[in-house]
Amino acid sequence: MNLKGKFLLLGILFCNLWSFGQTSKELAPLIQNVYDRQRISLNGYWNYTVDPLETGYYDYRRRPNPDGFFKDHQVDNINTYKEYDFDTSPVMPIPGDWNTFSDNLFLYEGTVWFRQQFLYTPKSDNKVYLYFGASNYETRVYLNGERVGMHEGGYTPFNFDVTDFVKSGNNKLIVKVDNKRRADAVPTNNFDWFNYGGITRDVMLVEVPQTFIQSYKVQLKKGTSNILEVKAQMSEKMAGQSVYIEIPELKIKQTITTDASGLATTEVKANPALWSPQSPKLYAVKIVSGKDAVNDEIGFRTIETRGREILLNGKSIFLKGISIHEEAAFRNGRIFSEDEDLTLLNWAKELGCNYVRLAHYPHNEQMVRLAEKMGLLVWSEIPVYWTIHWEKDYVYANALNQLDEMIERDQNRANVFVWSIANETPHGDARDKFLSSLAKYAREKDDTRLISMAMERNDKSKEVLSIKDNMSNYVDIVSVNQYVGWYDGTNEKLDRVRWEVDYDKPLMISEFGGEAVAGYHGDASQIWTEEYQAELYRKTLNMVDERMGYVAGISPWILKDFRSSRRLLPNIQDGFNRKGIISDRGDRKQAFFILQEWFKKK
Ligand code: GCB
Prior knowledge:
- By secondary structure, the chain is an alpha/beta fold.
- The chain folds into 3 domains: about 5-210, Galactose-binding domain-like (Jelly Rolls, Sandwich), CATH 2.60.120.260; about 215-300, Sandwich (Immunoglobulin-like), CATH 2.60.40.10; about 305-515 and about 525-560, TIM Barrel (Alpha-Beta Barrel).
- A hairpin with a 2-residue loop joins strand 6 (about 140-145) and strand 7.
- Helix 1 runs antiparallel to helix 6, helix 4 packs across helix 5 (about 365-375) and helix 6 runs parallel beside helix 7.
- The protein is globular and about 80 Å long.
- (2S,3S,4S,5R)-3,4,5-trihydroxy-6-oxo-oxane-2-carboxylic acid binds next to loops.
């Protein structure tokens, strides 16, 4: 059964509890690589209405109102009455986050209604999908007064088949976005980054033929470097459809046929030049079926582990990384453009990285594609963060859906080497069941990447640091967030501690760090100064050199200071987590140069 089918079942089981299952059947399977399809951008200025009490959704008895704001009624006679008006409401740029758009909305968490109008001429032999790159957090979509569907999760793409909803002439698209935090959401209500609300990535109509190439995967077959595994899933679940694949530079031209589920697969012998940070080679790939064609640029590489090593293309690699949030440099809002992606990635390159941990949720698609072209490996993560409600099935269904959307979107990116399923989660049976099922799903869906998650330390004694986590049995890479010198003791402790890690798997330090205010100087023992942070980096890197020679990679926390509503210390934090090695204004702190020097020697 495919994933959407599973959701239907879950939906039937849990629709009394929650609306996710009910509505998930409205989500269409994700169309892959929308940027290469026939598309009409709906980005631009959208009218918006802030609705803290959800008056546009519920009536005065708190029942869903069939006549809500999504009807966008026109007042055409004296008997018609309404208390909203999109025509005269203000406008906001989309993609955008409302928090940095308007001072009044900076800390707003709740519902905002958006309206965009567009002219359209339906074409009889096409299907039309409405695609959102991401919208945070719960999104309800209406077209011409009709409910189209709903999506939960703030960082992954989703689309609806709107062929039966669009009409000739003017169309009214109304979207309700609600970023209220919930304990039973993914992420939960408590997290250390800023809860930017809104339609934060591109919105578009995607036109495809009646039968089209839904998704495809062209990657080296696991365990080989000369066999390409090709999979193409057609939208029509029917046998006998032919799919043509061409990779001109490798002289590959082949036609394959679908099985009864609409899936066409083959294996092709080839000797591609392998993608690597030193040589991020991509090949033009074309897939054609009937009236549909899609082009991509795809790289080929192998990734595996051997004991404590990570092997890229069969060779041991040390991962020189940095963690990054999807927050724009200088402007400090959600990222909306490729230029803003590029600023962060250029900083990572300047630092000497061959790897970036895109924390704590999937970043935008262009970010991953740019990183791929620049030779940066990517750790990609879903926001299963801290205290998720492990025992609730609908929470699991939500996390699974976000995992599926992440993998579906980026499964052809050679630079994505890790699917990370969680960050710093509290141990327990319910958690183990939840996370091991996610790991199993990711592995079955994509065996060409490694699975990891950021774990917490579980020390053997004060001076003997360690990790003990049942999930180590389910991941390929054991990763740890270690904060000696910050949440645990002062920098001196870094000189004394030893590590004993009993797993025969690669160990990565997924986080370490400490806060510093750029331009604040003092003695190296004085916290919040650049000197303290620099010393923490010096001593941590020294510990890795001297006592952790087997570590396979690091991604210190974090490239840039980022907004977080948990960080309240006046004159120091002022709403920012200051663990950046670059400030929110772009100043490189001393720790930046310590890490840069160390990477040069690695
Ligand atoms: C962590 C979390 C990260 C926080 C960081 C911190 O371990 O994974 O999301 O921002 O610590 O600064 O405390």
